[in-house]
Structure formats: structure tokens, C-alpha cells
Amino acid sequence: MLDEAIQRHLTPLLDRLTYLEEQIEGGERQGRNAIQLGLIRELVDGQRVVVEFSKDSFTPPIKWAAMACGETAFYRAPSVGEMALVLNWGDGERFTSSVAIVGIASTKYPLPSADPNKVIEKIGAHGWVEWNVETGELLVKAKRITFDAEEVHATHELSDGVRKISQDRGIYDGHDHNETQSVTKKPNQKQGA
Ligand SMILES: [Fe+2]
Q1: How confident is the model at residue 30 (pLDDT cuts 50, 70, 90)?
Q2: 170 Cα to the center of ligand 1, angstroms
């Protein structure tokens, strides 16, 4: 009799406990998958990545967070083996609603500098853009540079491996020729080296 009464009173509490257990378990599962660190396994269509957490655990192709993607946009495909933090805002375990945060330094891909006075973009093995914050000097390394612009203008001076353009103008302004009866000889003053 007493047992039955106790049981009757306990049943709703036990049901409530079961419900709470399920909630906690679901929350833990969601928490486990909400943020995970992995490595880029594959680039898909140049626009998405597959991130691997372990041998048998990886995302479907997902987007990565670029530095900017509005009217101003920045494209840089993550590298295979690059570290990626996957943020999963869905509650599923399939990572269909997730995005990869990339650009995290790792042993395979360390930061290109440890100098706070520099702002650097390293582009593969051949490209390099380096600002010196203190002096304002900009260093650009590239195989070839093409400007698709109406005009390329320097407010002051241009120079190359030979001399400054103002020095070239000085040579031109003062140059003369050995006169002949025929075709004018090549100038004594050379603009080339
Ligand atoms: Fe001349």
C-alpha cells in the first residue's frame, strides 16, 4: 500500500529526470559538435572545403570564412593540411550547417613573421607583400606585375636597376650628336646601361 503510494508520487519525478537526462545528453552532443578543430582534407570546386577531425570523421563540403565577402571580397583557397576550426550552428552531427574558420598558424603552415612592425602577405613560394609599419615602406615580390588601370602615376620619382627617371631626363636634355652627311649616328649618351 505504502509502496504504491510512493511509486505513484515518484513516477512523475522519474519521468522528469528521464526528460532532463535526455536534454543534457542532447546538449552535450550538440556541445561536442558545436566547435571542432580539424585539418583541411580537400578543396571542392575552389569554393568549399572538407575538414577532417579524425580518420573516419569529416565534414561534407562546407564554406570557409574569408577575410571579407561583401562588395569588397577576398579570395584565398585554404591549403590541404591547414588547420580549421569548424563552427556548427545546427544541432546535427553531419556538419551541414557549419563554417570553417581558417588562417590558424600550425607547424605545417607557420606565420611568415614574428615581427609586430611588419604586415605581411605570403603568397605561395613566389609572392610576398610586406609593409613596414614604422617606416611606411612597402616591399612587393612577384614574378611579374600587371596593372589593369587607366594610369599608373607616381607623385615623385621612378627608378629601375640602372638609374632614376629624373637622371634619364637629364641625359636626354643635354645629349648631342656627331653630325654627318648621311644618317645621324647613334647618340653618344646612352639611356641604357
Ligand atoms: Fe638624339
Answers
A1: low
A2: 13
Q: Does domain 1-110 have CATH number 1.10.357.10?
A: no
Residue 192 has pLDDT above 90, yes or no: no
Q: Which amino acid is at 2?
A: L
Whether residue 60 contacts residue 50, with contact meaning beta carbons closer than 8 Å, is answered with yes
Query: How far, in Å, is the centroid of ligand 1 from the Cα of 176?
Result: 6
Domain ranges in the chain are 1-110, 111-145
Instruction: Measure 158 CA to ligand 1 centroid, in angstroms.
Output: 22
Amino acid code (one letter) for 34: A
Strand partners, 122: 128
For ligand 1, the distance from its centroid to the CA atom of residue 177, given in whole angstroms, is 6
Report how far ligand 1's centroid is from the alpha carbon of 70 (Å).
54
Distance 159 CA to ligand 1 centre (A): 22
Q: How far is the CA of 156 from the centre of ligand 1 (A)?
A: 26
For position 167, what pLDDT does the model report? 94
pTM: 0.75
Q: Mind listing the pLDDT tens digit for each residue in 136-180?
A: 999 999 999 999 999 999 999 999 999 999 999 999 888 888 877
CA 87 from chain center: how many Å?
17
Å from CA of 193 to ligand 1 middle = 17
Interatomic CA distance for residues 48 and 43, integer angstroms: 6
> Under a CB-based contact definition with an 8 Å cutoff, are residues 122 and 128 in contact?
yes
